[in-house]
Amino acid sequence: MNINRLKGKKGFTLIELLIVIAIIGILAAIAIPTYLSYVNRAKDSEAMTNLGAIFTDETAFSANNSTYINAGLASNTGNGVVAGNASSAIHPFYSPTGTYYNDTPPFTCNAGVLQTNGGYTTIAAGVPTVTAGNTPNSTAKGGFADIGFLPKGSLYFYYDVVAATAANTAIPTSVATFTAPTVGANGVCGPGYVANAWTNFTGTNAQMYAVNDFTSTPTLITGTAY
Asked: Is 14 helix (H, G, I), strand (E, B) or coil?
């Protein structure tokens, strides 16, 4: 073995290694926040897509039945509550257990109460089964299934629709203290509505978007958009 030749080979100096590590650190400091920002924007787009779908579904329901309806926690217990700075869980729209209802038209709105004479279908653990001979009650009537809003997979946002007693119901411009919306009982109907999507998937940015019966573009009413 040629020892002199081995002695002539040079490795990296400590300064060179430190420079490389510093460059990697700078690139990571730039790239990681940018990547996370893109990820969070993609999550935000879920609310835009689903609120747009709710607007379309409620509009179609109203065109057929001359009323809008409530849809919320009572009709899909995959929904939850966002409180304070607790991070929102990724969740299914429908809970894997429980019983949910899908009513059958025709529908009418009588003094703010939804009436249906077509019976209803139960959706137990996400599997539709026909239930005959039952009269829908206030819990069964109304809900996301009735307007045809049934998103698949796991969600970052929670959703609800609150039917209103007047058309062109205003969307709040801001919420001073973030709280999840209080959803009225299913079976409520009216000439207007406000639909909300809310989350806090980072644990540091509680957000709420909303649409109403005349505004199809979601409005950010609390939190910061990514």
From this structure: helix
